[in-house]
Amino acid sequence: MDGFEFNKIAGAVLATALVVFGLKELSSAVYHSETPEKPGFAIEVAESGATGEAQAATAGPAVSIGSLLASADISKGAAGAKACAACHDFSKGGPNKTGPNLYDVVERGIASHEGFAYSDSMKARSAEKWTYENLDAFIKDPKTATPKTKMGFAGVKKDQARADIIAYLASLSDAPKPFPAP
Ligand code: HEC
Q: Would you say residue 27 has pLDDT above 90?
């Protein structure tokens, strides 16, 4: 193959490449695909405000349990807690059912109610207490807060509905524990 032949082949290859690229350019000009203005998913950002920075720092929930509790409605919570009553008794000195008695559960040691056979995963948390934060996380998503818990309940996802239930639980006490600061 002499130099001229090689040039012809190289030229043909180059020309083909140019056509291919040209078509690509052309098609992207014809079938102009726009990037959507809004992405398909929304990224939640804590509302800016006095507490905005603190929340971002701890990557906590958008609204703190303290501020949700501050506007909680105990009677709505009592109604919401009917979902729990299938398994939990709420009365003072009441029995354990499928789940342990929940009278005065706020600040009670985790897995500490007498006579109830807790799961191993719940027992593993027995050094902790049922603080408002712990209750909030557990009632929101039991299986995430305490993997392998035997509480067969999906959780209460709505923040205010959950805070209402927690406020109701807090009221079931001889000495209700103060809510955390909003
Ligand atoms: C289907 C039955 C069932 C339902 C419904 C249910 N629970 Fe439970 N719950 C349990 C069981 C069982 C346990 C024990 C979990 C373990 O040992 O892992 C438990 C444990 C708990 C504990 C820990 C108590 C302790 O002594 O450590 C809390 C708090 C609790 N449940 C709150 C609730 C609330 C609030 C609701 C309603 C919003 C609810 N549960 C609904 C079955 C249930």
A: no
Question: Based on the domain organization, do 74 and 21 belong to the same domain?
Answer: no
Same domain, 9 and 68: no
This model's pTM is above 0.90: no
Is 28 in the same domain as 67? no
Q: 127 and 71, same structural domain?
A: yes
Number of domain units in the chain: 2
- Whether 86 and 165 share a structural domain: yes
Domain extent at residue 13: 1-36
DSSP track, 24-78: HHHHHHHS-PPPPSS-SSPPP-PPPSTTHHHHHHHT--SS-HHHHHHT--HHHHH
151 CB near ligand 1 (under 6 Å): yes
Neighbours of 155 (CB within 10 A): 15
- Return the residue whose CA atom lies nearest to atom 40 of ligand 1: 84
Q: Mind listing the pLDDT tens digit for each residue in 47-85?
A: 444 444 444 444 555 789 999 999 999 999 999 999 999
CA 100–ligand 1 middle distance (angstroms)? 7
Ligand 1 midpoint to CA 94 (Å): 15
